[in-house]
Amino acid sequence: MTGTLQPTRTRAQRLYLYGLVPSAARPPDDLAGIDGNLVRVIRLGRVAALVSDAPSGREPGLPDDVRVHAQVLDTVARAETVLPMRFGATTSDESLPDAVPVEHQARHADALRALAGTVQFTVFARYREEAVLAQLVAEDPEIRHLRSITRGRSEVSTYHERLRLGELVVAGLERRRARDEQLVVAAVSAFTQASRAHEVTRSGDVADLALLVRREDAVPLEDALEGLAAQVADRMSVRLVGPQAPYDFAEEV
């Protein structure tokens, strides 16, 4: 019996996609991604996909996967421009062109060019609450008076005074927070191409700012914030995180 031999079909390789980079980009040779799989690029035309093999036998999404995903993107961003995927995605080598279709590549390439040479830093400022409250008391006679008449007396007998005291403290902290946030903005503005202010939600938070910074301005930025941190050390702490992939300034992939 004779028949036509069918070509052997190789099994599609499952990939994990971190983001997009310029077509000529090269990640570090030994960069490990999720489950220790080596990170590489697959060129798609005008852009390239930053990938590793997907985890074997499971879907990604564990806390360690999230940490490694960000670590890969931040490491690549130190030397290459990257459009990060915030949460990553799995696909196959056969389906990758569908995940990054040709008709979108010109837009992605333009976005990469716009971000060329930049990274993100994030600056956090937070009050030392006891210190800043002490400063409020020292500066505001009404707060001092209300504190003195409520100290050592029952909450019931001083209900209205305590209510007024709380209102004054909240208002005073917000005025000070707005002023100190602008102090942080002024300290970094000379070294940033763009900035995004995240809403602060915790009591005592002063600023949460994403900064787009040229790589050559990273050291001057760090120096400026070290100077600011020394200047305001009596009332707040200042922390700089980065360099990072430009999560707040990149288009969605």
Automatic annotation (TrEMBL):
Print the keywords alphabetically: Gas vesicle
One GO cellular component this record assigns the protein to is: gas vesicle
Name the GO terms of the biological process aspect: gas vesicle organization
What InterPro entries does its record include? GvpL/GvpF
UniProt keyword Signal present: no
Q: Which Pfam families match?
A: GvpL_GvpF
Q: Where in the cell is it found?
A: Gas vesicle
Q: Which family does it belong to?
A: Belongs to the gas vesicle GvpF/GvpL family.
Q: What is this protein called?
A: Gas vesicle synthesis protein GvpL/GvpF
Q: Which organism is it from?
A: Krasilnikoviella flava
